């Protein structure tokens, strides 16, 4: 059974975002995220992974760093509403030191959110992309506590170099790929997860292909958009949940 989070009865609105891929080189997206966190009407914001383009360890959040700046934005926003973070494939090394300093609550992948009579299953989505066998092998390796302990024991500069190499490799792979090459969430596994958690909607990111997919009568998969404030038109989409259901909100660029 997946983890379950019971929303406080006072919550009226919850927001879901993912795949912001925040980095120092994309200040417009960071500014849009900061503005959104301070102005949303939601009682809680669920950040479902790949919030950061890369995260090599909480010790990267040195005073004055980009990571520390983001931590400050989160801590300020946490004064107004509850913030949750689920790890993605880019930021799974984000740890309890950074989260507690930023007053953000960690969520297991997947987690069922019980809210206003709904059961929504939240995930980053990478574990569902079974067609990408190379990635699933890599994921199993890097999610093991032993690998993470060894990696985090390496000097920060070495970890940053390794992360840059991984990204270059992934960019090269992306350039060489054809449309349709990327594995999507596996439909049978998605259904299994929904049945096991008695949830009606699976909400996930990772694929950057925002869409609503009917999986069965009354069961669906709702895919979040990635964020890019500099794209034309800007991609700054929030999935908003209320007692009435889910709707997509396109934010104005700041
Ligand atoms: Mn991802």
Task: Explain the overall architecture.
It is a single chain. With 254 residues, this protein is α/β, with parallel strands linked by helices. Helices cover 32% and strands 22% of the residues. The protein contains 7 helices and 12 strands. The protein has helices at residues 27-39, 66-77, 96-102, 133-142, 145-152, 156-176, 187-197, and strands at 3-6, 14-17, 44-47, 82-85, 105-106, 111-115, 118-123, 201-204, 211-216, 219-223, 237-242, 245-250. It has a 6-stranded mixed beta sheet, covered by helices on one side. A 6-stranded mixed beta sheet has the order 5-4-3-2-11-12, with helices on one face. A hairpin with a 2-residue loop joins strand 9 (211-216) and strand 10 (219-223). Helix 1 (27-39) packs parallel to helix 2 (66-77) and helix 2 crosses helix 3 (96-102). The longest helix has 21 residues, at 156-176. The mean pLDDT is 95. Bound molecules: manganese (II) ion (MN).
């Amino acid at each position: 059974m997946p983890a379950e989070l019971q929303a406080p009865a006072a919550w009226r609105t919850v927001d879901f975002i993912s795949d912001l891929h925040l980095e120092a080189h994309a200040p417009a997206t960071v500014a849009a995220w900061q503005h959104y966190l301070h102005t949303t009407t939601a009682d809680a914001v669920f950040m479902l992974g790949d919030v950061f383009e890369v995260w090599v360890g909480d010790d990267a959040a040195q005073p004055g760093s980009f990571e520390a700046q983001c931590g400050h934005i989160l801590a300020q926003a946490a004064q107004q509403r509850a913030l949750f973070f689920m790890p993605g494939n880019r930021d799974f090394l984000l740890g309890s030191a950074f989260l507690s300093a930023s007053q953000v609550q960690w969520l297991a992948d997947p987690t069922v959110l019980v809210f206003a009579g709904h059961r929504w299953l939240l995930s980053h989505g990478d574990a569902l992309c079974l067609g990408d066998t190379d990635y699933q092998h890599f994921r199993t390796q890097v999610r093991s506590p032993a690998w993470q302990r060894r990696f985090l024991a390496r000097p920060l500069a070495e970890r940053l170099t390794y992360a840059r190499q991984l990204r270059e490799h992934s960019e090269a792979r992306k350039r060489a790929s054809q449309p349709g090459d990327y594995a999507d969430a596996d439909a049978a596994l998605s259904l299994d997860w929904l049945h096991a958690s008695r949830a009606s909607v699976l909400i996930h990111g990772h694929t950057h292909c925002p869409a609503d997919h009917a999986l069965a009568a009354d069961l669906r998969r709702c895919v979040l958009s990635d964020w890019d404030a500099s794209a034309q038109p800007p991609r700054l989409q929030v999935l908003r949940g209320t007692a009435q259901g889910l709707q997509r909100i396109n934010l104005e660029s700041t």
